[in-house]
Every structure is written in structure tokens, then in C-alpha cells.
Write a structure and sequence with these properties.
9 helices; mainly alpha; 0% strand; 160 residues
Length: 160
């Protein structure tokens, strides 16, 4: 599963919000699908550019693109995937997001809500929010009070 990074968590939440508000969801379009919305948030590429890069390279859905990923290929799609990996995603996350299938994410939903439809906008939005929450909890669990440096009192007074 993805590394818990603030940039990925925020991108998931932004993508979910934009997807919820959008009339342009297309599961079969590389820039307007489940992964496409998240990729738009992280890379700031347009849905048209994302789709063009995917079709120019080798075609296939996000799962297939991730399977064929080569960081040194020079293909624009592989550069896109590299940005996503830097943001915290793992290659298997592309498959899980496209199919809404990560068991850790699904287990956080009530039993009656776990049969998500991968090409249904509302289910994608729900999945993204739950995934972001899971990643955020991981970050919080890693923080210790010892990690927070005490501000010297004289500096605190200067702030007031």
C-alpha cells in the first residue's frame, strides 16, 4: 500500500471532491477515471494530456500501465507514474484504485458498503476518502510527543 505522505492524502481528498462535483467521469478514459482524477491532482496535468500520454505509449488501463512501468523508458506515461510514486503511491495502488479493491481500505467500510462498483462515481469518492483517512491515521500513529520540539519560553513570549 501507498506510503502515508501528506501530499498523497491531500490529493486523494481533492480528487474525491472534484470528482464528486464533476459531470465528466468516465471510467474508460485514462484522464477522467478513478486514477485519472488523482493523477490530475498530483501532476497538474489535464485529463486530455494524461489520456494522450497513455495512448501514445502502450495503451491499456492503469493496471497495465503500472505493470509495464519502466522509470528509464523516457515515455511520458512512465514519467507520470514516477511522479505518482514520488507522492507515495505504490504500483499496486493503481490497480486497487481502478478496481476499488484494496482490502485494507474496504475493511474500514461497514460490511454492507464493501461491494463498491469501480465505475460508479459515488463509490470512487467514498473509496478515496476512506483511503485518505487510513493514510492519515498512519501518519498520526508515527508521531510521538518526543518528535515535537518544545519551544523555548522566551520565544513563546516573543510570539505573544
Amino acid at each position: 500500500m501507498a506510503k502515508a505522505k501528506p501530499v498523497l492524502i491531500q490529493a486523494l481528498r481533492n480528487a474525491a471532491r472534484k470528482l464528486q462535483d464533476s459531470q465528466n467521469y468516465q471510467w474508460g478514459h485514462m484522464g477522467s477515471c478513478n486514477c485519472g482524477y488523482l493523477v490530475q491532482e498530483i501532476t497538474k496535468l489535464s485529463k486530455a494530456d494524461i489520456h494522450e500520454y497513455a495512448m501514445r505509449t502502450r495503451g491499456g488501463d492503469w493496471s497495465e500501465q503500472a505493470l509495464d512501468f519502466c522509470p528509464t523508458s523516457g515515455y511520458l506515461m512512465d514519467q507520470v507514474i514516477s511522479y505518482m510514486l514520488e507522492a507515495g503511491m505504490d504500483l499496486v495502488d493503481f490497480k486497487h484504485l481502478e478496481r476499488l479493491s484494496d482490502k485494507e481500505v474496504l475493511m474500514r467500510l461497514p460490511v454492507e458498503e464493501r461491494n463498491l462498483r469501480y465505475n460508479f462515481k459515488e463509490d470512487v469518492v467514498k473509496y478515496m476518502h476512506v483511503w485518505a483517512g487510513l493514510l492519515e491515521e498512519r501518519i498520526v500513529a508515527e508521531i510521538s510527543l518526543r518528535d515535537i520540539q518544545k519551544v523555548p519560553e522566551e520565544k513563546m513570549e516573543e510570539r505573544l
